[in-house]
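Worked example 4.2. Below are the chains of a multi-component assembly; read each line carefully before continuing.
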Amino acid sequence: MKRARLGTLLGTLALAFAGDPLPAWGKSGWDELNMPRGVTNVSTRIYALHMMAFWVCVGIAVVVFGVMIWSLIFHRKARGAVPDVSLTHSTKVEIVWTTVPVLILIGMAAPAARLLVRINNNTDPQLNIRVTGFQWGWRYQYLGSNVSIISKLSASSAAASMMHSGISPTSVPHYLLSVDHPLVVPVGEKIRLLITSIDVIHSWWVPDLGVKRDAIPGFLNDASFTIAPDKTGTYRGQCTELCGRGHAYMPIVVHAVTPAAFEAWLKQQSALQSEAATHPPTTAATSG
Amino acid sequence: MAESHATAVHAEHDHKPHGWRRWVFATNHKDIGTMYLILSGVMFFIGGTAAMVIRAQLFKSGMKLVDPEVFNSLTTLHGLIMIFGAIMPAWVGLGNWMIPMQVGAPDMALPRLNNLSFWILPFAFTLLVGSFFVPGGSIAGGWYMYPPLLQQFGAAFPMTIFAIHLMGISSILGAINIIVTIMNLRAPGMSLLRMPLFVWTWLITAYLLIAVMPVLAGAVTMQLTDHYFGTSFFNAAGGGDPVLFLHLFWFFGHPEVYILILPAFGIISEVIPTFARKPLFGYDAMVYATASIAFLSFIVWGHHMFTVGLPVAAQMFFMLSTMLIAVPTGVKVFNWVATMWRGSMSFEPPMLFAIAFVFLFSIGGFSGLMLALVPSDYQYHGTYFVVAHFHYVLVPGAVFAIFAGIYYWLPKWSGRMYDMRLAKWHFWLSAIFVNVLFFPMHFLGLAGMPRRVADYAPQFTDWNMVASIGGFIFGASQLLLPYIVWKCVRSGKPIEANSPWEGARGLEWELPSPAPYHSWQSPPGEAVLAHADKH
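Applying the procedure described above to all two chains together yields the following structure tokens:
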């Protein structure tokens, strides 16, 4: 009786929270367990370092927790264990468990340090893009051309994200991860981002590219990456530094295209934007 | 000996004021400790309520229970309240109760200062919590209050800063009192390396507090003058530097993390030997490890700022110094495990919480080690992976250690035993659902969910639902604690011996239970000390 009532209560609660029949369930939500391997020279190496660190931690955990669980099972009063009160100190053991961790740490730090230096090599880029964060969106300027893009949350996501919109997020393609004007970049070329902000601190992050850098007013940060030549596609990310009310609503979308397609796109944008500049805005492409 | 007889008689007439005066004019370490603990409990449930709303908002994609700005206020207040309102006062409360008893003193060295440092806090927290209700709502820029975002908030902005000033003053006064008590009021014969580890860890924590609270106070004051007096410390448009605030804040912020966890190490080092019926393994190493951690905490702040664009050499330095912390922390964990090894363990509530602490704090340590690797941190930074990491070290870390301390010493404070069965329920519900709550956050962060978002893409819904359900049950089960304490104090079965735990050692267990109002009216002699050491 009591249990039945509890069941009904839980059911009602679940319904109240679920609303429309369990949205993402059955999709791939449960499989989202690990860092993406990504598509750049940077991201794949970070992934390898991350997995190495993870398995080292698992190894240490197995040993330490193993000893502890052994103790919990066999050295308990209920089993008649007698405490070995003389066991209070052992210089030998203490030296071992100080030096072994140091060696493990050196083993982890060496590849991490090498990778750190490698990632932060921002020399000789083939393309420079200035990224400017603002509340709430991103501006991308292709240096050496007149092309400038303002990139904001897509209209469909924005509409669905309003209070009492009544629009189910699952009915919107890439809810909160789609923009009106994505950043377009070529694959196979070294791209350097020059990142800043005009108001508060933001952070530009695309997991598949392995790039995260803060956009700070008054500072110009840089980060670079090269997308593998066969990895054309769309990569999505978000602002990762709390920047006010719209923090959850300033995604980043990167279209990676072939160098030829990129050149064509850049030329077309350049023409469009110089036309818009000479014939002041009626349907300006930059109003986004 | 005649003198000690006179003391015993005198203890019956402790001349304490009665009614409200006993509390408002309190100078007794036990009364003040009790008030600290009650305040901490109240703040724990206020901060917890904020957490429940946060988890409800994040129950599924597109939930929209509260406005995003309110959501940001709630995450900010949750952080500030739990750190400054729940955990820190709990440590001061436990320190007040236990340090005089553990070092053989009658009371804290500076009782009136003690009163002041407590009574500042209700005003500080009224300002902080009250800022939620002023026009524009409370500050919503996260507990670390980065400029220029912080400059965008209204009346709540100065209120919060004044609250932080008050909390800082209170912490510094409390820390001074603890240092003076430990340095001057130890029983003759109690050398530094004979002190209980809770006293040691608190002593080191007190120095950390004195060192870093002024830095925080200075940094937030600079934000205040930037806003109201036209300075440009952190304003790039005026030639200032927003990153300077980050450096100052985290120079405070990282030692602050150890302020929250070092006393926990102390409690665990008291509880495990008691219930393993075996002295702590490697006492000296524990003391040195604590001191090394405290020292290292001053030179690792940059690991909170790896994506800020520090020079590569600086990132390298902060990576290596951070990894180094794993060594003394590892020594601590190994010593606890070695204390259990070949012990004779029993599993009363304090021990259960201590064992869960060792397991789950270690998990937080592992993710901390992963976060130290700068290239990986580029992916983890600002995501739910970080949220999982610091909640593992603070909830099943610091908070479980507070619970262990309460269940360990409550019989000493009240002279009564609590309901063991209910306390075990409290433990199992907490230990299971804290993992349901926080473990999935590792997955969410790795899969790409940033922290502090009011809404998220649908693919993150599944694990968020699991975390929220874990959160609701974890939150609800915490209501057991005040009930258990209340029931114990009201109608618990009186304990007859000085100590309900057969393996307990330390001066506090040489006193009767409940402990006399003025703990040690005459210092315990060498015989008592030796008995406390050995038992």
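Take a moment to check your reading of the output against the notes. The domain at 41-119 of chain A is CATH 1.10.287 (Helix Hairpins). Residues 4 and 176 of chain A are 39 Å apart (CA to CA).
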